[in-house]
UniProtKB/TrEMBL annotation:
Residues 178-271 form the MDMPI C-terminal domain. Residues 20-157 form the Mycothiol-dependent maleylpyruvate isomerase metal-binding domain. Pfam families: MDMPI_C, MDMPI_N. This is Maleylpyruvate isomerase family mycothiol-dependent enzyme. Coiled coil: none annotated. One of its GO terms (molecular function) is metal ion binding. InterPro entries: DinB/YfiT-like, Maleyloyr_isom, MDMPI_C-term_domain, MDMPI_metal-binding. It comes from the Bacteria. It comes from Mycobacterium intermedium.
Amino acid sequence: MPAPITQLDKSAVLDGLFSVWDDIDTLVDGLPESSWQAPSPLPGWDVKALVSHIIGTESFLAGIAPPQPDIDVKELPHVRNDIGALNECWVRALAAEPGTAVLEKFREVTKSRRQVLADMSDEDWNAVTATPAGMDAYGRFMRIRAFDCWMHEQDIRLGLQRPSSDNDLEGPALPLVLDEISSSLGFVVGKLAKAPDGSRVLFELTGPLSGSIRVAVDGRAKVVDDFGGAEPTATIRLDGLQFTRLVGGRPLCPKRAQDVELAGDRELAQRIVDRLNFVI
């Protein structure tokens, strides 16, 4: 049976996505060229590459063909798939540009995309299309864009040694980020970690991204609102930002708590933590 189509409020998703673009703009505005070249947590990419990647994705969505790379980008050690190769076309094309020019391109493409998305009809917003998570509504694709851009904002912050403060972690993008992560946790718990039937897994997130996410395995693993009064069989407790870092296969933020506390079935809990990296 095909997965249900995700119906999302357009204004909430766009508010979150646009706020992340605004935050990235503020972060890199006025940077010296040396800071644009600061290495990021992602292998092979500096701060400029992260912004170039966002430019490339939004350009692709605007129907702009990628530039031809000067080398076979698939041979680069940090390129692992076709999406990575496509990303690298833009990264390499903009690598020689000064940071000010890259920021101007970022502003140009995001301004254009803001207008297109704001003008999009509800019918087009809910239309089924190919997304990184399979066939789903275009609105789901834009929630994925908010998640991806927010993750890269955190990468830029770490590259600049300006990790998010508690205040930085507040805003309209955060519910979208956590909802997007939650949508894949059934897959992580059931398929990747192979939690046995009857498992009840509780993710307890602390800090500014505090909250609880529950996954129950009853034939299949899925996110649930509660366990019907039953206690979790495995609990994973950690800082919410660090949780997003693990999900993205990134190094932990050095300025936040590093501890990952496990309770209940600790073997299962550790297996889940080891398989949290599901991002392409």
